[in-house]
C-alpha cells in the first residue's frame, strides 16, 4: 500500500488538508497528492502538510489540477471516490493496486462530470460522509488486504 498515491482534490479547508494527511500517514501512505487547493488550504494547509511529511519522512506533491497529477504520476488506474449519487459502482478493494491514484473530493459538491471522466467513479458507503470519512474507511479496508 505504500506506493499507492492518495489524493485530496478541490479543497479550500486547511484543517481538512491537515486531517487528510494525519489519516493517510497514519496508515503508512508514503505520498499524498493535493490538487486544486484554494483559500486557506493552499495558504496554510499545504505548508502544514509539508511540515508533517518532513517530520515523518513522507512525501507531498501539490499540483494545480488533477490532470497534472495524472500526467506526472502516470498511475495504472485512477479511482475517484465520491458518493452514490454520482458514482455508479461500489469500490471493489481488490481492484485497487499499488500504482493507482485514488482521489477523494474535498468539496461538499463532489466531483464534476468532467472530473469523473478522468477515472473510475466509485463510492464506499451509501450515505455522504465526506473525504475524511471515505479516506479512513478506504485505507482501513486496504490495510486488511496486506
Classified by CATH, the class is Alpha Beta
The helix fraction, in percent, is 40-55%
The helix/strand series, from N terminus to C terminus, equals EHEHEHEEEHEH
Separation of the first and last Cα atoms: 8 Å
Please indicate the count of domains: 1
Counting H and I runs of at least 4 residues, what is the number of helices? 5
Say what the CATH topology is: Alpha/beta knot
Total strands: the figure is 7
CATH superfamily: SPOUT methyltransferase, trefoil knot domain
Strand numbers in spatial order across the main sheet? 3-2-1-6-4-7-5
CATH architecture descriptor text? 3-Layer(aba) Sandwich
Low-pLDDT segments: none
What is the residue-mean pLDDT, rounded to a whole number? 94
What distinguishing features does this structure have?
146 residues; alpha/beta; Alpha/beta knot; seven-stranded parallel β-sheet; 7 strands; 40% helix; 21% strand; Putative type II restriction enzyme MjaORF1200P; nuclease; DUF2122_RecB-nuclease-rel
Question: What would you say about this model in short?
Answer:
By secondary structure, the protein is an alpha/beta fold. It has a single domain, classed as Alpha/beta knot (3-Layer(aba) Sandwich), CATH 3.40.1280.10. Helices cover 40% and strands 21% of the residues.
Describe what you observe in this structure:
40% of the residues lie in helices and 21% in strands. It has one domain: 3-Layer(aba) Sandwich (Alpha/beta knot). The protein has helices at 14-26, 39-56, 66-73, 113-116, 130-145, and strands at residues 5-9, 31-35, 59-63, 78-82, 89-90, 101-105, 120-123. It contains five helices and seven strands; from the N terminus they run βαβαβαβββαβα. The protein has a seven-stranded parallel beta sheet, sandwiched between helices. Helix 1 runs parallel beside helix 2 (39-56) and helix 1 packs parallel to helix 5. The model has no long low-confidence stretch (mean pLDDT 94). By secondary structure, it is of the alpha/beta class. To A.pernix APE2001. Its EC number is 3.1.21.4. It catalyses: Endonucleolytic cleavage of DNA to give specific double-stranded fragments with terminal 5'-phosphates. GO terms for molecular function: DNA binding; endonuclease activity. InterPro entries: DUF2122_RecB-nuclease-rel.
Amino acid at each position: 500500500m505504500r506506493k499507492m498515491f492518495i489524493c485530496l482534490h478541490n479543497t479550500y479547508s486547511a484543517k481538512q488538508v491537515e486531517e487528510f494527511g494525519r489519516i493517510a500517514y497514519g496508515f503508512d501512505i508514503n505520498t499524498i497528492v493535493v490538487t486544486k487547493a484554494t483559500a486557506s488550504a493552499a495558504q496554510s494547509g499545504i505548508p502544514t502538510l509539508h511540515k508533517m511529511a518532513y517530520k515523518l519522512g513522507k512525501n507531498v506533491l501539490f499540483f494545480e489540477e488533477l490532470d497534472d497529477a495524472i500526467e506526472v504520476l502516470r498511475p495504472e488506474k485512477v479511482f475517484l471516490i465520491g458518493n452514490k449519487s454520482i458514482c455508479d459502482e461500489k469500490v471493489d478493494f481488490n481492484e485497487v493496486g499499488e500504482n493507482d491514484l485514488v482521489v477523494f473530493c474535498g468539496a461538499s459538491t463532489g466531483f464534476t462530470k468532467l472530473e469523473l471522466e478522468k477515472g473510475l467513479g466509485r463510492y464506499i458507503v451509501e450515505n455522504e460522509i465526506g473525504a475524511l470519512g471515505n479516506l479512513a474507511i478506504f485505507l482501513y479496508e486496504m490495510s486488511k488486504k496486506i
